[in-house]
Structure to design on (316 residues):
């Protein structure tokens, strides 16, 4: 089955790996990329999305989106994790292509309305573009095929605060709207992505298998790897954003729990995601807003890594 997707992204080292998969996988039709602030500023995010498509020699529309969170004051981009240029501070060529004239939310609404029931939104950054698209077209939930979000954490704890994952923390108000909307959504959070570690030997295979993007993926990985060594004491990186695509194409590699999601928007726990399992009844209706969602609670890490390496070595 081919999946027609819009990839909403803040590239970002692990975003770049996922973009390489979206560009390469024969079962993915990449309709476009929409960009958001997050790992980098919005201009850098758009530059990197354009650059990766150009280097892969594919004409993929890129629509620029959210520059800031909906409500909260923006935190500075995490240059120590992704580099100030989002790709490990390696030297990058200039781009020759430009973003389309539509904004990211306009692009999402147009594409989904052009192919009702067919388009999957895969979002791997803060969720301002999806929240704005919902506002622009409130009937969007009935027209998308599905939504896959990399973000959040139920039992694993956070990676920015003790309870908040980065994409949720960067725009909790947008995240709350998206995770409580009445649409079919799967959340691929740290409970799954922390089970997956892309080790240096696997990365070497990817570099060798990617003649066009290999240098950027490999050199930016080296920077990201240093962060993981210092911060988490592991030799390798969690390919968070690639896991969203792995869920889309290989859902059997993940353990799912169904339930209602909430996001804390203010205070010490801002950005925390909460799951009310469908299997239990709760007295307070505030815990069951919108449709029930599919939440990844675990992943077969080695199999996910094998799928990533296989995808990027077979399809250069
Ligand atoms: C998420 O935050 C970003 O740093 C990554 O690109 C990923 O989308 C992981 O928490
Ligand atoms: Ca990301």
């Amino acid at each position: 089955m081919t999946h027609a997707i819009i990839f909403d992204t803040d590239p970002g080292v692990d975003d770049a790996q996922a973009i390489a998969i979206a560009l390469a996988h024969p079962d993915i039709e990449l309709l476009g990329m929409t960009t958001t602030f997050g790992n980098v500023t919005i201009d850098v995010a758009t530059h990197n999305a354009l650059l990766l498509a150009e280097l892969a020699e594919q004409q993929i529309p890129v629509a620029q989106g959210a520059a800031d969170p909906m409500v909260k004051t923006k935190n500075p981009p995490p240059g120590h994790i992704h580099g100030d240029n989002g790709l490990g501070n390696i030297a990058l060529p200039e781009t020759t292509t430009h973003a389309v004239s539509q904004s990211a939310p306009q692009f999402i609404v147009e594409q989904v309305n052009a192919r009702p029931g067919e388009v999957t939104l895969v979002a791997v950054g803060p969720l301002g573009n999806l929240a704005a698209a919902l506002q622009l077209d409130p009937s969007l939930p009935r027209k998308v095929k599905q939504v896959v979000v990399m973000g959040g954490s139920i039992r694993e704890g956070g990676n920015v605060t003790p309870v908040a994952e980065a994409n949720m923390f960067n725009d909790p108000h947008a995240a709350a709207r998206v995770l409580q909307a009445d649409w079919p959504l799967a959340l691929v959070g740290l409970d799954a992505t922390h089970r997956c570690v892309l080790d240096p030997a696997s990365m070497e295979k990817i570099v060798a298998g990617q003649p066009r993007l290999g240098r950027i993926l490999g050199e930016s990985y080296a920077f990201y790897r240093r962060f993981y060594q210092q911060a988490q004491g592991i030799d390798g990186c969690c390919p968070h954003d690639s896991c969203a695509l792995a869920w889309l194409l290989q859902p059997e590699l993940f353990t799912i729990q169904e339930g209602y999601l909430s996001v804390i928007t203010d205070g010490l726990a801002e950005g925390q995601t909460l799951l009310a399992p469908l299997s239990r009844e709760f007295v307070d209706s505030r815990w069951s807003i919108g449709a029930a969602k599919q939440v990844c609670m675990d992943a077969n890490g080695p199999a996910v890594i094998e799928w990533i390496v296989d995808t990027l070595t077979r399809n250069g």
Remarks:
- Strands lie at 3-9, 28-35, 62-64, 119-123, 146-150, 185-188, 254-263, 273-277, 293-299.
- DSSP finds 13 helices and nine strands in the chain.
- The radius of gyration is 18 Å.
- The longest helix spans residues 214-232.
